[in-house]
Amino acid sequence: MRQILTLTAALIALTLPAAAQDSFPVTITVDASKPTGPLKPVWRFFGADEPNYATMKDGQKLLAHLGELKPKQVYFRAHNLLNTGDGTAAFKWGSTNAYTEDKDGNPVYNWMITDMIIDSYLDRGVRPYLQIGFMPEALSSGPKDMPYRHSWRPGFKYELIEGGWNYPPNDYKKWEELVYQWTRHNVEKYGRDEVLTWYFEVWNEPNGPSYWKGTPEEFYKTHDYAIAGVKRALPEAKVGGPDVAGSGGAFMDGFLKHVVSGKNYATGETGTPTDFLAFHAKGSPKFVDGHVQMGMNNHLKAVDNGFKKIAAIPEHKNTPIVIGESDPEGCAACPGPQNGYRNGTMYSSYTAASFARIWELSERHQVNLDGVLTWAFTFEDQPWFAGYRQLASNGIDLPVLNVFRMYAKLGPESVTASSSAQLPLDDMISGVTQKNDVGVMATREGSKIAVMVWHYNDNDQKGPEANLSVKLSGLGKAKVRKVTQYLVDPHTANAYAEWQKMGSPQSPDQDQYKVLEAASVMHPKTLAPLTVTKGTAGLDITLVRQGVMLLIID
After folding, report:
1. Domain Glycosyl hydrolases family 39 N-terminal catalytic: where (predicted)?
2. Average pLDDT over residues 214-241
């Protein structure tokens, strides 16, 4: 009778909606004796539309936090670095006044603001992923009656960011010379060895109407002349692109053909130097039945298609790939109910679940994944937790940044790991709304083992917690192992939740600010030591929905 009752209870639990259950069991297995290959730190790339925020108080504070993740191995990409203007920051805008012309049409170069931006990076352990663009006003071929700068603001249509800045040059030789002079200046100021570590690419999303108003061929020409300028100043520089929106479609096909076998517009030679290739991938959240439902399937499909496209070109099968923007959706500066996931732990759990599948897709396609760039930074002097896609609000780190702190603690070598509740890759590409994804990845570095676990669902709703039974093997001869836990969830390492508890103040005083800072920090917790028997051990632990956890077994 007891067996019948137990079976009946189990069947009822399977038929209940996820939110109606209190918990469900998950078995995690990790074998530290079975390496599966190196784990590249592809997560160490970040970026933003607004370059001038890097020189401001909160921008510099956040840059320091990024640089601490992996000093001198973190990269930052920014739009608008060559725009004409006084350097005042604004939504989806920035300027440096690097290039103007005198009354006779002669170039006037001014590197003061670009230096300030790059100095802000380098002083904090961050290096440039240097985007060459957009077009200075004096070089723009845009209509003379068109405003050079756009007047876009949150709530406006995305297409309204157009202006003279997104047109091809009116003089390609002057364009090349600008890029040459900038690169030469950087080599002189920062040193050849330093600049050789940077990435150089031209423009942003030239396959879409928002950022590029020329033809594909005009972009190839603009790209060739810019790359020629970089190479003339620093022949060994790392150059690539084209940072297309999505996998790039026919535009990317044409670009790949051009850089392999087309006639170089600047040099007349066959092909264009290409040390890395870049495309973008975005999800598509929507507001459904009173809550946000993420669209990770669209994000992963774009990655899948981008890898397929590059892997199909024999000459670029092994070329390093940077997903130059990889995010849950497309506009960091656009608020709205569908973007209400950003401040809390939906964003952090999405990041953990999506990065794991991007690593997996790179293995499936056997491509050389070099970087996955999170297009999120901070928006200076905006309302607290205003709903922009950012890593910090008014100098207070959001939960998502703690996931990158976890990544920084992973070792260089993956080991075998599995979870009874980790959804297969193809299911993730179809969408994560029916079942929860409780996934795992594990690494080792010497005798140290790192186990990262996340609990994710596309629906931003409460749900049952996962009762984890973690089974570890390959632990060697040690009889006792120390275990340290790092955790971010709706109640832990979550400044947004603490701000809500305060009553959501829009002008926190200095004491409240200190409390928010403390709440944003992910504190290590020492768990009960593991007793190791014949190289094996186990522990039981709970992970709530939208939680991400890292266990360090040392």
Report:
1. 27-529
2. 98
Whether the predicted pLDDT of 20 surpasses 50: no
pTM across the whole model? 0.94
326 with 341, same domain?
yes
Structure tokens belonging to residue 220:
């190839």
Question: In whole angstroms, what is the distance from residue 329 CA to residue 286 CA?
Answer: 10
Beta-carbon count within 10 A of 524 CB: 11
Residue that finishes a domain, picked among 408, 432, 461: 408
pLDDT of residue 279 exceeding 80 = yes
Note the pLDDT tens digit of each residue in 518-554: 999 999 999 999 999 999 999 999 999 999 999 999 9
- 533: number of Cβ within 10 Å: 10
Query: Token pair 């994000």 is at which residue?
Result: 299
Nearest Cα to 546, choosing from 182, 294, 226, 230? 294
For range 245-266, the mean pLDDT: 97
Does some domain include residue 494?
no
CATH number of the domain that residue 253 is part of: 3.20.20.80
Distance of CA 269 to the CA centre of its chain: 35
Residues 330 and 267 occupy one common structural domain: yes
Using one digit for the tens of pLDDT, what is the confidence trace for 197-223?
999 999 999 998 899 999 999 999 999
At 21 the pLDDT is: 63
Residue 207's contacts (CB-CB under 8 Å, 6 or more residues apart) are 216, 242, 244, 245, 246, 248, 249, 251, 252
46: confidence class by pLDDT, cuts 50, 70, 90: very high
Query: Does residue 109 form part of some domain?
Result: yes
Q: Is 14 exposed, middle or buried (0-12, 13-18, 19+ CB in 10 A)?
A: exposed
Region for residue 503 given its phi and psi (left: phi exceeds 0; alpha: psi -120 to 50; beta: otherwise): left
Minimal CA–CA distance to 475: which of 539, 431, 429, 385? 539
Question: Catalytic positions, please?
Answer: 205
Q: Does residue 19 have a pLDDT over 80? A: no
How far, CA to CA in Å, does 269 sit from each of 235, 313, 315, 540?
A: 15, 20, 17, 63
Token digits for 116?
């300030």
Residue 302: domain span: 45-179+195-222+241-408
On the question of a cis peptide bond just before residue 134, with omega within 30 degrees of 0, the verdict is: yes
- Annotate 364-382 with DSSP letters as a single string: HHT--EEEEEE--B--TT-
Average pLDDT, the chain: 94
* Residue ending a domain, choose from 380, 408, 436: 408
Q: Per-residue pLDDT for 4 more than 70?
A: no
* H helices, E strands: number in the chain: 13, 25
Is residue 230 in some structural domain? no
For the chain, the maximum distance between any two Cα atoms, rounded to a whole number of angstroms, is: 97
